[in-house]
Specification:
about 325 residues, elongated
Length: about 325
């Protein structure tokens, strides 16, 4: 079994290749050199140009003439971030000592989450187990996992399996989970697997030419440890991103799981990157992930049941999305 996808293992290898790109050439530190390194690295290693229908050479033709070595750092920053905006990719980041750039994948979407509302009206006397807020609502187990940065252990998952043994099922609330370490999500997801299943397939950009990708690499999951619940509902919104997006994609492969809420924010490529000569760091997507039916998850995983948090309900202390999930048990 490919317990944890080679996605992040190969990403680390690619970071090492980036080091060779920069260290061997010993590039100059001026605006033109920094721009060229950023553009060329993406040209050779970014994975989604075809999927996003972006002509990167045309982007160069627009932005390169505007670069000169008399530019200030802020002028160079503004130009580079305008160029990166063309990719509309939340895993494309630029970080300096004075600012951090990222594309806001959730800007135009409804929030569909009010933490204060559910804390006051649903969580009750909850526990925090491995950073997972958990309780039982109307005989249904409930976990809110706000960030995959927060580590969970097998012992904590065993505790939750025992706690929810006699419930009708489980709700896993991932709203506003913007990612972190995907291994935490996979560790949780393994507790819902009924049998060995193909989860998704990855390919990785491994060369400078447009079609330089590795052969497809399949990720499979098998049952592992005490099963927490047989029936599971996962709640998502547009701020469910990156590792949260991968978790939602993983759960879509299980027939006992229903995803409720809004389409996730996406982030379906492994983020990798390096440092520019001026000390700025940049990240970008280096892979493509497909569901078993061929669907690419870069722009988000759609729910099985689309539900928005209605303002009229929110004013009454009712979470429309959570209530729809509870109605499924």
């Amino acid at each position: 079994m490919q317990k944890y996808s080679s996605l992040y293992i190969l990403a680390l290898l690619f970071v090492a290749s980036c080091e060779n790109i920069f260290m061997e050439k010993d590039p100059a530190n001026n605006p033109i050199s920094n721009f060229e390194i950023l553009w060329n690295t993406l040209d050779e290693r970014y994975s989604f140009f075809e999927y996003k229908n972006v002509d990167w050479d045309s982007v160069y033709a627009v932005y390169r003439p505007r670069v000169n070595n008399e530019m200030t750092e802020r002028q160079l920053w503004d130009l580079m971030t305008q160029m990166l905006n063309v990719l509309e990719d939340g895993h494309v980041n630029l970080r300096s000592e004075f600012d951090i750039y990222f594309w806001s994948w959730y800007a135009d979407a409804p929030a569909n989450f009010d933490e204060y509302l559910i804390e006051q009206n649903y969580w009750g006397d909850y526990e925090i187990t491995g950073f997972m807020r958990n309780t039982i609502i109307d005989s249904v187990g409930y976990i809110y996992y706000g960030s995959f940065q927060s580590t969970i252990t097998e012992e904590q998952l065993d505790y939750l399996a025992d706690k929810f043994r006699d419930t009708k099922g489980l709700i896993v609330d991932l709203r506003n989970n913007e990612g972190g370490d995907p291994a935490n999500g996979w560790r949780l997801a393994e507790r819902f697997v009924d049998q060995r299943r193909l989860i998704y397939t990855n390919i990785y950009k491994n060369g400078p030419e447009e079609n330089d990708f590795t052969e497809p690499s399949d990720a499979y999951f098998e049952p592992d440890g005490k099963r927490i619940a047989e029936k599971v509902v996962v709640l998502t919104n547009r701020r469910t991103y990156s590792a949260g997006n991968f978790f939602a994609a993983t759960m879509k492969a299980f027939p006992n799981v229903t995803v409720v809420g809004d389409t996730t924010g996406g982030g379906g490529g492994a983020p990798v990157g390096w440092e520019l000569p001026n000390g700025w760091y940049f990240n970008f997507s280096s892979s493509i992930t497909y569901l078993p039916d061929g669907f690419i998850i870069e722009d988000g995983v759609p729910p099985d049941i689309q539900v928005d948090l209605l303002e009229a309900d929110r004013q009454k202390g009712v979470d429309t999305i959570l209530e729809r999930a509870l109605s499924l048990f």
